[in-house]
Amino acid sequence: MKRQMVRLAIFCLSVFSFTTMQNLTAAQRTPPPPDPVQVNRDVRAGTQSLDRDVNAGVKNLQRLTNDANRFDGEAKRAKGLADKADKVAQDAMDAAMNCDEARFARLSKQATDLVAQARNAKEKADAMGNEVDKRVKETLETVNNRISNLQNLLGQGFKAAKEEGLADSSVTVGNLRDAQNALNQELAKQNSGGTKENNFQDEGGLSRLNKAKNEFDNQMKKIRESHDSSGALEKIEQRLTDGAALLKKNCPPKVGAVPKTPTEVYVAVDNRPEVLTCISPGQDTQVALNALGLGKKFQTLMSGPTGTIVKSFGDAKTIEKNAQAKGVNLCFKPENDYCTIMTPLTPFRGHDHEAHKHSGRGPHEHDGPDPPLDWGVTPPEIVVRWEQGDR
To answer: Less crowded by CB within 10 Å, the N or C end of the chain?
Structure first.
């Protein structure tokens, strides 16, 4: 019996201690109601220092301009390395098509090294850009949180005055309303875009801060768009893989004396997209092509009083974008070349560009000149089979 009483006493003591701790914790978590008089003082002080806080945010964005410029430089370096890797990879593919294994190995290694450098530079640039975005966001959040805290503090002051039974006509509530009016007037001043009479020199700090933030966002967007190398490195690596597969499958070249019976041969075909570009008359063609980034790697198809048409490897949209940026006048928008066929197996089949341009039909449905065959001998019967290369 005594043992049971001891156990009951211990249990009751434990329950009492646990309940007491819960009550103490609840009391600690519930903050006391704010003093309306102190709220009035704090809001007035915060309103007076708001202009200083906003101007500090504007200056912080101005300092971040240097970080944005460093991001621009690193992103530009990454794009330059990617472009250089792409050129070397194209040369490596040419070596593979010519079965020059030693040259392909050297260029493939060089391109792989450049891809690695470009990828590291891009990762570094992305990290720099993300850090700038984060700091810009934090700058705006600091100012906006400052304003939000003052507004919330006013709300707590009005609530506490009501709970204390203070009438709307009381001095305390009147002071809170005065503080609210002062904050609203300051916010209106901060958000003002300024007046024409003062040459907009009286523009509010918050308005300038928001404009600066928008300009910063646009600057970062332009940097990312102008130096974008997303996906380019993977394409370069795939081209090197295709070149290695071509070397393995087609070298030494599977050609020889033409047999009398049909046979199968493998033909190395450069399937990079080719683009037709027309330079309007009145411009230096070579200067215009250099501005478009085509350099010397192009083939002139036609030149006359209506313009000069060249064919080159590349992307039609990129060439058009470069033309707009560099002020190069084009006869028509760059277009992918689907119709010119040049292989060792067939004679040249011409492409009537004017008929193509004005036919109003599909890209393969125009009336182009088809010169007669002139082999000198009876053409061999050729069997061409397309196969998916090793990946």
So the answer is: N
Selection from 144, 136, 141 nearest residue 64 by Cα: 136
Strands 263-264 and 382-383: parallel
- Burial bucket for residue 115 (CB in 10 Å: 0-12, 13-18, 19+): buried
What CATH topology corresponds to 265-370?
Alpha-Beta Plaits (3.30.70)
How would you label 292-316 residue by residue, b for 16+ Cβ within 10 Å and e otherwise?
bebeeebeebbeeeebbbbbbebeb
Q: Which of 140, 145, 148 is nearest to 64 (CA)?
A: 140
Distance CA 201, CA 98 (A): 68
Domain ranges of the chain: 36-196+205-233, 265-370
Does residue 310 contact residue 279 with C-beta atoms inside 8 Å? yes
Give CA torsion, residues 193, 198, 204, 210, to 10 deg. Answer: 50
Interstrand relation of 274-279 and 307-313 (parallel, antiparallel or unpaired): antiparallel
pTM for the predicted model, two decimal places: 0.50
List pLDDT tens digits, range 280-320: 888 888 888 888 887 667 878 777 777 888 888 888 888 88
Q: How far apart are CA 189 and CA 186, in angstroms?
A: 5
Residue 252, preceding bond cis, omega within 30 degrees? yes
Residue 339 contacts residue 274 (beta carbons within 8 Å): no
Residues in the chain: 391
Residue 43's closest CA among 142, 118, 151, 126?
A: 151
- Calpha distance 83→80 (Å, rounded): 5
3-state secondary structure 46-106: HHHHHHHHHHHHHHHHHHHHHHHHHHHHHHHHHHHHHHHHHHHHHHHHHHHHCCCHHHHHH
pLDDT at 179 over 90: no
